[in-house]
Structures are given as C-alpha cells and as structure tokens.
C-alpha cells in the first residue's frame, strides 16, 4: 500500500502526492480537511491539518459560502 504525503478527509479519505492535487480534490468535496503526514518525535506518523474547506453562512449576503482556512 502506498503512503501519500497529503490526505484529504471528506466524505471519503484519499491520498495525494502533491498539495495542489489535494486542494483540487478538497474543493470538489466540501466540507473537507487537507492533512499532511508528519513524523512525530517518537517515530510514529501523524496527520496534521493544514487547510480546511468548509461552509460559512454570510449573514450580509444571506447565502452559504465556501471558506478556506
């Protein structure tokens, strides 16, 4: 099984080789979270959130908007 450096958590989880690929998938599957695999000091691997594509209600415009944090 291949280990990808970037993982998108959405309705389903999917791995990517590049951040740009992960961003494209995340934008098409809102809400979603982009995570990066990082080595922890004890040698284990952990997923660290680096971006979030989410819905936010804009009261002024009276509409739901897609926001990226």
Please explain how this structure is put together.
- It is a single chain.
- Helices cover 14% and strands 52% of the residues.
- It has 69 residues and is mostly beta strands.
- The longest helix has 10 residues, at 19-28.
- Strand fraction equals over 45%
Rg from Cα: 14 Å
- Cα separation of the termini: 30 Å
Instruction: Report the principal-axis shape.
Output: elongated
Quote the average pLDDT: 88
Major sheet attributes = 5 strands, antiparallel
The structure class reads: mainly beta
Give, in order, the helices and strands.
Answer: EEHEEE
Spatial sequence of strands, sheet with the most strands: 2-1-3-4-5
- Provide a count of the helices: 1
Count the strands? Answer: 5
Low-confidence stretches: none
> Helical content, roughly?
10-25%
Q: What is the strand and helix layout of this fold?
A:
Blueprint: E1 6-9, E2 13-16, H1 19-28, E3 32-39, E4 45-58, E5 63-68
Antiparallel strand pairs: 1-2, 1-3, 3-4, 4-5
Keywords:
69 residues, five-stranded antiparallel β-sheet, 1 helix
Summarize this structure briefly:
The protein is mainly beta. The protein has one helix spanning 19-28; strands at residues 6-9, 13-16, 32-39, 45-58, 63-68.
